[in-house]
Each structure stands twice: as C-alpha cells, then as structure tokens.
Structure of Citrate synthase:
Amino acid sequence: MDKPTKGLADVVAASTALSDIDGKAGRLFYRGYDIHDLAGRATFEETAHLLQRGTLPNRAELQAYGDELVAGRELGPLVSANVAEIAEKQKPMEALRSLVSLASADDPDRDSIEPEADLRKAARLTAQQPLLVARYHAARSGKGVPESDPALSIAGNFLHQVTGRTPSPREAEIFDACLVLHADHTMNASTFAARVCAATLSDMHSAIVAAIGTLKGPLHGGANEQVMKTLESISPDGVAQTVRDKLAAGEKIMGFGHRVYKTEDPRATHLRRMSEELSGDEPKFYRMSKEMEEVVFETKGLYPNVDFYAASVYHYLGIPTDLFTPVFSISRMSGWTAHVIEQHADNRLIRPDSEYIGERDQKWKPIDER
Ligand SMILES: CC(=O)SCCNC(=O)CCNC(=O)[C@H](O)C(C)(C)COP(=O)(O)OP(=O)(O)OC[C@H]1O[C@@H](n2cnc3c(N)ncnc32)[C@H](O)[C@@H]1OP(=O)(O)O
Ligand SMILES: O=C([O-])CC(=O)C(=O)O
C-alpha cells in the first residue's frame, strides 16, 4: 500500500471546470478567466453567475439572476425565530453553521438534489449569507437591521446593513471586488469538505454546513481575523522585532504561506492596493502590514496569502474583526455551491484509503482482567 501524503498535498482529489491555479506563476482563473481581469470589472453577482451557471451573464441573464438574488434576501421563520438566541450563545462562524443548517428547514427545495433545485438553492444561499451575518450582528448588538435595499448590490447592501451607514460608491466597489477575489479556489479545505459531503448524495445545505465548519479554522479562512488581532496587538514601532521573535519561537504568522502558491498570491496583489487606498487618515495598519510582509519575506521567504491584506481592508471598511471570516463565507458561498452542483452532476463517492499504524493481534480480555 502507498504511504499517505500528509495533508493530501499535491493529491488531485477531483476534476473541476470552476477554477484553476498556477501556483508557480501566481495565477488564478475562474472558468478560464484570469482573476486580474475579473477583479474590479466583474461584479460579485456576475462572478457568482459565472461559477454557478457556467457563463458570464448577458444583461438579461444578469437581470434575471439579480432578481433571484434580491428575492432570496429573506430569512425563513425557523431562522428568524432562533437568530437572537444563537447570537447570544455562539461566536459568528458557529452561529452561521447553525443558521445555515436551520435555513434548510425553511427552504422550499429542502433536501432535493435535483439540478434545478441545486441551482435555486445556490442562489438562495448566496443571497441569504450576507443577511444571516447582518442579522446575527444586529441581534448581538441589540439593534435592528437596516432594511435591505434592492437597489444595492450584495456588497453594498451588506456594508449598509453591518455598518449602519450607506457606503460610498468606491467602498462598495472595493468590497465587491473583495467578494470576487474570494469566490473560489480549487480544492481548498472547505470546498473539499463540501464536495465530500455532496458526494454521498447528501443535500446542498449539509455540504455548506461542512464547508462553513472547515472555513472557520485559523489555518484556513479564520486566518483573516487572526491577522487583525496580530496587527492590533503589536506596537507600530515593534513590528519587525515581534515578527522575528515569533518566527524564532517557531510560531506561524497568520496570513502568510500557502499550500499551492510558491510566489505571490494574485489576490493579495489586489488586496494590498485596496488596503493602501483605504488607509487614508489611518495609515497605521497598512504600514504595519507592509512592514510585516517585508520581515516575513526576509526571514522566512513566505508571501502573504489572501487573508493578510483582507484584514486591514475589512477593518478600513468598518467591518467588525470577528465578522471577517463570515465575510469570507459570504463570498465563498458562490464557489462552494457551484462545487456541490458540479459534484452532484458527475458523482462518485469520495472515500480515500488510510494506512493502518495501530496495534495488531490484540487478545481479548474480559473487563475485570484489563
Ligand atoms: C484562505 C486560506 O486558507 S489562505 C491560508 C490561511 N492560513 C494562514 O494564513 C495560516 C498561516 N499559514 C499556514 O499555516 C500555512 O502556510 C498553510 C496552512 C496556509 C499551508 O500549510 P502547508 O502547506 O501544510 O505548509 P506547512 O504548514 O507544512 O508549512 C511549511 C513550512 O513553512 C512554515 N510556514 C508555513 N506558513 C508559515 C507561516 N505563516 N508562518 C511561519 N512559518 C510558516 C512551516 O512552519 C513549515 O516550516 P518547516 O518546514 O520548517 O516545519
Ligand atoms: O486554497 C487554499 O488552500 C486556501 C485558499 O487560499 C482559499 O481557500 O482561498
């Protein structure tokens, strides 16, 4: 039997037409479109259509899909009845895991895995996720959520609902591009989790719950929140020393390193620029991030990943730090759901093997002899 590859590094676990990475060149493509061509040009709604429905939409398609997304901006009775108690007891990613699970009971397509049902659920989940985050945040803050504005995009409406103020057009544009940049990323851990679940012919909500639980960890989506906490915990004069000390102590610096990219993550290029642009009157976190980047590269040769500059960008946009990973899930919902659709369309159970390393030939002893 073959030795397992720890962490399944370089193991091809699925075929996909959704996204592709060239880790050496630092390039990312969604259905053949370079991320550099999409970011800042395609809206998140167009990107979600590309992933879930296969093409960049024409005007009529975008109108129809956009209408579906706006109609999906509502929460069912079970979710609405429980959001306050969940907000009291659970942290944001735990809460989202619970709320998405409850949302399946409110969904008219429930556990159907028919292709049309999957498409409808993909749109509804994409529309609901920002609202779930906003409702959660409002419930724990003891405030109401501003009404959804159908004239606003997913990005603009989310910023409006979470910060309580209408974002400037440029802020909405930047946040929209952030959602585009985070939408899909080949066989990352949360997408893999979703596909494993979907491959048992389980339903889309179950697969998404698995994905949310997987995104939550600090080695994956949870890193963006940790980056902000690191920036907030260091004095601006002590960046280089703190980073060197942490590395010398064998600690990982959150927001750096990547399983696939051996050079700069192309998403980080955009996020760095956005962070600089938004840093205006509060340059501290952008400057500290730049310095951290330089020291980590000098000391360890590691590049920032998508989570690194996303942290200061979200901070500058007024998003509370513990909602950074939920924001990631708002975007990645478009990719996860597209992967579930793809998995259901051409399925085989995902069931790898394992290498047994435990005891053998144990002799049974009755309980009193153990
Ligand atoms: C959206 C995303 O999921 S992007 C990733 C978000 N996660 C993070 O930012 C957390 C920090 N980064 C990491 O933990 C890793 O780089 C991962 C999880 C992203 C990739 O992990 P792997 O491919 O398994 O690499 P692994 O953790 O084995 O690291 C390889 C080597 O680089 C070092 N390394 C990797 N990342 C870092 C880091 N951020 N800080 C310090 N050292 C690091 C490891 O210590 C290891 O060194 P060693 O060979 O001397 O033991
Ligand atoms: O691909 C990965 O392993 C992690 C990542 O960058 C992502 O999910 O966006």
Notes: The radius of gyration is 21 Å. The CA atoms of residues 251 and 274 lie 28 Å apart.
